[in-house]
Amino acid sequence: MKAQLLKAFKYQQLIDMMYIANDGTISKRRVKILKVSGDSFQAYCFLRREKRHFKISHVLSCMPVRTKERQIV
């Protein structure tokens, strides 16, 4: 998981992730990783509209956001 997060950070990709909070609630979030340090990372969370700190061990899954350009014919 950490390797995927580092790759997203390196290429400045947005990621969609499933995250489990300390109280056990699961949420789907779209984030842009700003900083990775040790076992956590800081990211801008589009769900909460602010910078948040996340624990890497609490990330259940993550996937880069793919944007497809539309072509006008």
Write up this protein.
It is a single chain. By secondary structure, this protein is mostly beta strands. It is built from 1 helix and 5 strands; from the N terminus they run αβββββ. It is 12% helix and 51% strand. It has a 5-stranded antiparallel β-sheet. The radius of gyration is 13 Å and the shape is globular. The N and C termini lie far apart (40 Å). The relative contact order is 0.27.
Question: Number of helical runs?
Answer: 1
| Mean pLDDT rating | 92
> What's the main sheet like?
5 strands, antiparallel
Helix content: 10-25%
Order of helices and strands: HEEEEE
Strand order of the largest sheet: 4-3-2-1-5
For the termini, the CA-CA separation is 40 Å
Spatial extent as radius of gyration:
13 Å
Structural class: mainly beta
| Percentage of residues in DSSP E strands | over 45%
List low-pLDDT spans: none
Number of strands: 5
**Gross morphology:** globular
